[in-house]
Amino acid sequence: MKKVIFLSTIYALLALTSFTACLGDDDKNDTKELSQQEKQMALNKISGFYTGKLHFYNPRHLDKRDSLSMKWDISAYGVFSTQELPVAFLANFAPAGTEVRTALDHAEPIKYSATIDPQQKSSLENTSLLLCSFLPDNYTLTFATEYEGKNYNVSVVLLRSMTRTEGSGASNYAAISEHKETSNKEGGTTKAMNGYLLLDKMTVNGEEYTINDYAVIRGKN
């Protein structure tokens, strides 16, 4: 199933294209918009400590993806926060053999936060999926790093939505988080999160680099 998701504004309801169509194949599917009270209940349910990885496209490995480990917290107030966003993956978007690429490859993880705003909830048999907007307040990721005595000031512009040309044609992505809860055989539930960071362009010490790609934060509670 090709994921095609649009987000018109950060506070608008998500228009679910192929995702909704696929869910609609099952008669037991139940998709609903959330009231403010339901949004708070959803945040209470998904809040907690998560462990996982940041997955990203690696141009050096053609179509393969790479990953770096990280941990994060989701508060009942809708704040995603981590002390260890692994920004070293940004080295993949600087030219090979450059000082910038080497410096980014050695960059230490940084603090990062984003706002999670529940939008829609979909349910299938044994599975519940919550979709939320997922963006930092100013749509930017900034940090400074040092390598071999030289300072590097980095700023990455993030997007609310992105269109990419891929092998099967144009695909559309939105800055969302997907929170999936699945019933297990033991009678409990398994909780998982995917958070999409849409990367527009990166500036390092005044030099601009086009990215036009995305990273996905995946983990479990």
Describe the structure.
It is built from three helices and 15 strands. With 221 residues, it is mainly beta. The strands form three sheets. The chain has an eight-stranded antiparallel barrel. Strands 1-2 form a two-stranded antiparallel sheet. The chain has a two-stranded antiparallel sheet with strand order 11-12. A hairpin with an 8-residue loop joins strand 1 (5-6) and strand 2. The radius of gyration is 18 Å and the shape is elongated. Residues 1-28 have low confidence and may be disordered.
Outline the secondary-structure elements.
Blueprint: E1 5-6, E2 15-16, H1 18-23, E3 30-33, H2 36-46, E4 48-57, E5 65-74, E6 79-85, H3 99-105, E7 110-124, E8 127-135, E9 140-147, E10 150-158, E11 161-166, E12 169-174, E13 176-183, E14 189-204, E15 207-220
Antiparallel strand pairs: 1-2, 3-7, 4-5, 4-15, 5-6, 6-7, 7-8, 8-13, 9-10, 10-14, 11-12, 13-14, 14-15
